[in-house]
From TrEMBL:
<dbReference type="InterPro" id="IPR003819">
    <property type="entry name" value="TauD/TfdA-like"/>
</dbReference>
<dbReference type="Pfam" id="PF02668">
    <property type="entry name" value="TauD"/>
</dbReference>
<dbReference type="InterPro" id="IPR042098">
    <property type="entry name" value="TauD-like_sf"/>
</dbReference>
<comment type="similarity">
    <text>Belongs to the gamma-BBH/TMLD family.</text>
</comment>
<dbReference type="InterPro" id="IPR050411">
    <property type="entry name" value="AlphaKG_dependent_hydroxylases"/>
</dbReference>
<keyword id="KW-0408">Iron</keyword>
<dbReference type="GO" id="GO:0050353">
    <property type="term" value="F:trimethyllysine dioxygenase activity"/>
</dbReference>
<keyword id="KW-0124">Carnitine biosynthesis</keyword>
<keyword id="KW-0479">Metal-binding</keyword>
<keyword id="KW-0223">Dioxygenase</keyword>
<dbReference type="GO" id="GO:0005759">
    <property type="term" value="C:mitochondrial matrix"/>
</dbReference>
<keyword id="KW-0560">Oxidoreductase</keyword>
<dbReference type="GO" id="GO:0005506">
    <property type="term" value="F:iron ion binding"/>
</dbReference>
<dbReference type="GO" id="GO:0045329">
    <property type="term" value="P:carnitine biosynthetic process"/>
</dbReference>
<dbReference type="Pfam" id="PF06155">
    <property type="entry name" value="GBBH-like_N"/>
</dbReference>
<dbReference type="InterPro" id="IPR038492">
    <property type="entry name" value="GBBH-like_N_sf"/>
</dbReference>
<dbReference type="InterPro" id="IPR010376">
    <property type="entry name" value="GBBH-like_N"/>
</dbReference>
Length: 414
């Protein structure tokens, strides 16, 4: 029996935590204390250590802390499955707790605690919810793009009626939006009110200093270059908020004149190139905190906003990007790092900018009345070409949590 289980254990690659140490050698040292679930196929093996339980299930080696195991107990007295909320008072758990007994069958881990309480875990559940399991998964599946990838994907626009009236239309739209960070709705009546109806179908509108639904022409009514006819280089908006707006909706209601095309660039595609070419620069961009700032004193508008955070924001456990802040217009004085770091940061920023400016990464579209564009402002940069004539643009920002909420309720991974 032991021979067979050891043979099985030898098939696994070396432990990710100790790359130099073959798994087999660790097992030989620890062999007398390994247990495994008896029936074939042998999918699970475990052993108790001084302060944690080591569990191998399917392809995952998990190290589970005893307090964690007590804290996540899903028994009726510890967890209320109706509201999906914990009833257990975590602060009442002895930090030196250790299970009195451990047993594993084909699908379940059973732990008996010193006070007799029994905790059961589905092995499948642990595989998905442990740190080691999470680390292997992405939170947000995406397709990174340059202009060619995006064009070749032939991502369809969704028709306004299908978007408003059917779950399939909405789901298709949101799936495109989650994968590419941009999505279009067609045949929208060219008014601010109709644009608002679209926005409300997927989220709550995020009211900001620019209003709820904003509407602008090149009338200099606000102290920002957006309210001119000038070209705007690629950027993300509201970098000067502690939480930049998650989504931006654009709907061009009128343009009598030339130019004014919209530029879109996938910031995560560019960042992925930086990671490949210069991982230390990617790391710097994800670690150095920066300020962005908006100071306005025009007419009755008086605002002073400051947002702090790095250019690239990643989940620390899997290094997955979730937010890029990139706005060279609104970047504030750098006073958060010493001079030598500043210089390396400028070099890293240059590498990223070079990627963002590659013509092959630029997607140019002309927004027309009837075609609304949704942009993931945490991922995709936008800009515009200079223009002549009269141009009216309306839109709004959306709260990100609520867009993702809608997507999850439709069964999408968001
Ligand atoms: C869309 N709307 C015209 C309302 C906003 C303009 C905000 C522009 C600002 N520089 C930023 O990038 O955040
Ligand atoms: O005028 C445009 O097309 C976009 C301007 C802009 O960057 C913005 O409104 O956030
Ligand atoms: Fe903008």
């Amino acid at each position: 029996m032991w021979g067979r289980s050891l043979a099985w254990l030898f098939q696994f690659p070396s432990s990710p935590r100790c790359p130099g140490l073959p798994w087999g050698r660790r097992i030989l040292l620890a062999a007398p204390r390994w247990h495994h679930s008896a029936p074939e196929p042998l999918k699970c093996a475990w052993q108790l250590h001084g302060d944690h339980l080591e569990l191998r299930y399917a392809e995952t080696l998990m190290r589970l802390d005893f307090v964690w195991l007590r804290d996540h107990c899903r028994s009726a007295s510890c967890y209320n499955t109706k509201p999906h909320q914990r009833s257990l008072d975590t602060a009442s758990v002895d930090l030196d707790i250790r299970p009195k007994a451990v047993r594993v069958d084909e699908a379940t881990l059973f732990l008996t605690w010193p006070d007799g309480h029994v905790t059961r875990y589905g092995l499948e559940w642990l595989g998905r919810n442990s740190y080691e399991g999470q680390k292997q998964q992405v939170m947000h599946p995406r397709i990174l793009w340059n202009a060619e990838i995006y064009h070749q994907a032939r991502v369809p626009s969704v028709d306004c009626r299908s978007f408003l009236e059917t779950d399939e239309g909405l789901k298709e739209f949101l799936q495109n939006f989650l994968l590419y960070g941009i999505a279009f709705v067609e045949n929208v009546a060219p008014t601010k009110e109709d644009t608002e109806i679209l926005a409300k179908r997927i989220s709550l509108i995020r009211e900001t200093i620019y209003g709820r639904m904003w509407y602008f022409t090149s009338d200099f009514s606000r102290g920002d270059t957006a309210y001119t006819k000038l070209a705007l280089d690629r950027h993300t908006d509201t970098t000067y908020f502690q939480e930049p707006c998650g989504i931006q909706v654009f709907h061009c209601l009128k343009h009598e004149g030339t130019g004014g095309r919209t530029l879109l660039v996938d910031g995560f595609y560019a960042a992925a190139q930086v990671l490949q070419q210069a991982p230390e620069q990617f790391e710097l961009l994800s670690k150095v905190p920066l300020k962005h700032e908006y100071v306005e004193n025009v007419g009755d508008c008086h605002n002073h906003m400051i947002g702090v955070g790095p250019v690239l924001n990643v989940y620390p456990w899997n290094n997955e990007l979730y937010l890029i802040r990139y706005n060279n217009y609104d970047r504030a004085v750098i006073n958060t790092v010493p001079y030598d770091v500043v210089h390396r940061w400028y070099a890293a920023h240059r590498t990223l900018t070079t990627e963002l400016r590659r013509p092959e990464n630029e997607l140019w579209v002309k927004l027309k009345p009837g075609k609304a564009l949704f942009v993931d402002n945490w991922r995709v940069l936008h800009g515009r070409e200079a223009f002549t004539g009269y141009r009216q643009l309306c839109g709004c920002y959306l709260t990100r949590d609520d867009v993702l909420n809608t997507a999850r309720l439709l069964g999408l991974q968001a």
